[in-house]
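TOPIC: backbone geometry
CONTENTS: sequence, C-alpha cells:
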Amino acid sequence: MQPEPDSRPAIAAAVIVHGDRFLLVQRAVSEGTLSWQFPAGAVEPGESPEDAAVRETGEEAGLTVVARASLGERVHPATGRTMFYFACDVIEGEAHAADPEEIAAVRWCRLDEIEDYVPYGFFEPVQKHLDGMLSTSVSGSRGETR
C-alpha cells in the first residue's frame, strides 16, 4: 500500500541516460538517506511536471535536456511527496554541479553502481527503463564531477 501524498508541491525527476551511464546528483544537504538522486525539484505553480524536470536539470546539472517519455508517478515512500519521473535526452552541455549551494557533485553512473549510490533502489518503472537502456552498453569511465 502506498502512503498518502502530502500537501507540498509535487516533485519532477529527470532520468537521463547518456552512452552507458545515467546521471545522479548529490545534494549538498541530504534529505535523510536521499543523498544521491536524479536531478529533481518542485513543480512550480502553472508549470507541468515535464517542464519542471527539464528546468531542474538545467539548474542542478547545467544540462539542456528534452523529456521524451513519462516513466510514471508515485508517492515517494521516504518523503511522502508525489513524484513524477521522465526519461530525458541530453541536448547540450557538460554535467556539473551548477548550483553549489544545492548540489555537491554530479556523477555519471554505471548500472552496476546503483547500490553504491542508491542502496534502497529505484522506483520499478525507472529501474526497468535503466535496465533496458543500459544492459547492453559497454562500460566506460566518466566518473564524478564537482
